Amino acid sequence: MANGDDAGKLVLRVAVGLLVLLHGIFKLSAGVGFIGGMLAKAGLPGGLAYLVYVGEIVAPLLMIAGVFTRGAAAVVVINMLVAFGLVHMADLFALGKQGGWALELQGLYLFGALAVVLLGAGRFSVGGRNGRYN
């Protein structure tokens, strides 16, 4: 069943990577000024907002390719934890209109990336199952 496990890892890392990447692509056109404002409100330098490009563009691309996969997924986890802290704390224990967790999308990104950290890229990746870059 090794091929099934590796196929599952491929699906997971590509799905999470692609979905997070789409948020990063949006921020390329819209900018990160609103994130800088939230950081400033939290007493942090607004320039840190540019790190969102690492967490939402560079790291997802590495995850999709399967290169430095665990580290890239860890960056996505950190990115999501910062997003939770800056934007979503008020909804942390809230339910949505349809009864699900109000942060289910963000939670799926967070826990999907955490699963990739724990599982690695698998055989179907540029880095390979036990590759030097995984």
Describe this structure in words.
- It is a single chain.
- This protein has helices at 2-30, 33-41, 52-65, 69-88, 104-119.
- The two termini are 21 Å apart.
- The protein is globular and about 45 Å long.
- The longest helix has 29 residues, at 2-30.
- The chain is built from five helices and no strands.
- The chain is mainly α.
- Helices cover 66% and strands 0% of the residues.
Total strands: the figure is 0
Helix count equals 5
> Separation of termini?
21 Å
Which strand-content bin applies to the residues? under 5%
Give a short synopsis of this structure.
The chain contains five helices and no strands.
List the defining traits of the structure above.
single chain, 134 residues, mainly alpha, 5 helices
Compile the SSE list and pairings.
Layout lengths: L1 H29 L2 H9 L10 H14 L3 H20 L15 H16 L15
